[in-house]
């Protein structure tokens, strides 16, 4: 996937103004990379334009996501060869870049980085400088009454950890925790689909305070205890191999959160985000596609729709529509919130459909591993018929790599009726019915 413009931040120095092109493979899951202990992606070659002063940071990001850089070339030289990446830069230059210390401050926690006002301008600047998160924007005047930025990074709310429970069952891969925080004494109000920021303690390698990381909220506006006093997150510990040393590296903030003890203080900012909000119509159709901890906002939606105590707390919103969750995980023990999901499905079989894509246990029609895009292809015609209904909203959260497969499946389904999916999808976005947070 060509992310030109996502990494071409303005550079003020002569070196910074030089742009290189990385040819990268390995950015979507496949059978080989699926053997690793964290989610990565693999696709055909993608070409990423990178300013010189961000080359080390982009190398680390690509390696963390399982990608392999097969060539590096100056953009000007690439143009001369009509897009064929045939020239490399000197090894000494690569080594200088690799040891320059410009590491990325990004947590691969399975959540997205929402963009919203009034912090929108700050986050937009990050996006232009290489932020790995993408998110479709809502109309500027939409959801004007949604709370945002009650607490900012320079004045966070100090909450407390109430509980920190494992979500991965025995035999599963990695560490994923459901963490609940006490908001007593705060003015922090949020709604389903928003995110909060967490500022980990300590300083970074440059001696500066750690920056906040954004995590999608996994609880409804009333919290897990339905008392308006808590907020919950679903956090996976980031783990990857250092590109130069081969050492195992753990994410600063995700590790802090995954091992946080009950009673410990935590710095919370936000809330932020207006893109992933549920429609107010209780008769709406809600299609949800999630991988890993991308389940977080989906859990909040489903609790609001189907949990008894939550429904009792919202007499003005009694969901009567249809929700369909397609959830991709590597193994059965990695099905996050499995008991909750299956309990809701059993209680509301006419209103909630649950479909798993378990990559290491299930096979797609070609005999390969079953990923979420394979499930979407399997049900593409049915999904297309739902998507065409004006009351249907579609939500995608998790790995960006699944988007191409989803688009391919829906392209085929729409084409049967003479519809161009890419054009139709643009109209869905304009109508506020296509919601995406991917990383």
Helix and strand topology:
Blueprint: E1 19-25, E2 46-51, H1 55-64, E3 68-74, H2 75-80, H3 91-98, H4 120-128, E4 134-135, E5 157-166, E6 176-182, E7 195-199, E8 213-216, E9 230-236, E10 239-241, E11 248-250, H5 252-258, E12 265-272, E13 285-291, H6 295-306, H7 308-313, E14 322-329, H8 338-347, E15 352-358, H9 372-378, H10 380-387, E16 392-398, H11 402-415, H12 421-430, E17 434-438
Helix pairs in contact: 9-11, 10-11
Summarize the structure.
The chain is an alpha+beta fold and 439 residues long. It has helices at 55-64, 75-80, 91-98, 120-128, 252-258, 295-306, 308-313, 338-347, 372-378, 380-387, 402-415, 421-430; strands spanning 19-25, 46-51, 68-74, 134-135, 157-166, 176-182, 195-199, 213-216, 230-236, 239-241, 248-250, 265-272, 285-291, 322-329, 352-358, 392-398, 434-438.
Protein model, in words:
The protein is an alpha+beta fold. It has three domains: 19-98, no CATH class; 120-272, Elongation Factor Tu (Ef-tu), domain 3; 285-438, Rossmann fold (3-Layer(aba) Sandwich). It has twelve helices and 17 strands. It has helices at 55-64, 75-80, 91-98, 120-128, 252-258, 295-306, 308-313, 338-347, 372-378, 380-387, 402-415, 421-430; strands spanning 19-25, 46-51, 68-74, 134-135, 157-166, 176-182, 195-199, 213-216, 230-236, 239-241, 248-250, 265-272, 285-291, 322-329, 352-358, 392-398, 434-438. The strands form four sheets. Strands 4-17-16-13-14-15 form a six-stranded mixed β-sheet, sandwiched between helices. A six-stranded antiparallel β-sheet has the order 8-7-12-5-6-9. A hairpin with a 6-residue loop joins strand 10 (239-241) and strand 11 (248-250). The longest helix has 14 residues, at 402-415. The two termini are 12 Å apart. Residues 1-17, 28-44 and 77-141 have low confidence and may be disordered.
